[in-house]
């Protein structure tokens, strides 16, 4: 098991270039993604910092299953 982490991901399949979301990996290794998307990596980083500062994981995040 590892420590929970947040990561910024660029949505390559998005119609809008530069759109990002946030991935969260919990201590059990389950990866979830944010329902919110951000117009830039900077906006996503700001949202990530706010999530880390709050210490809470939103319960509406869906489980991410890589397709690659």
From TrEMBL:
This is Uncharacterized protein. It comes from Pseudomonas putida.
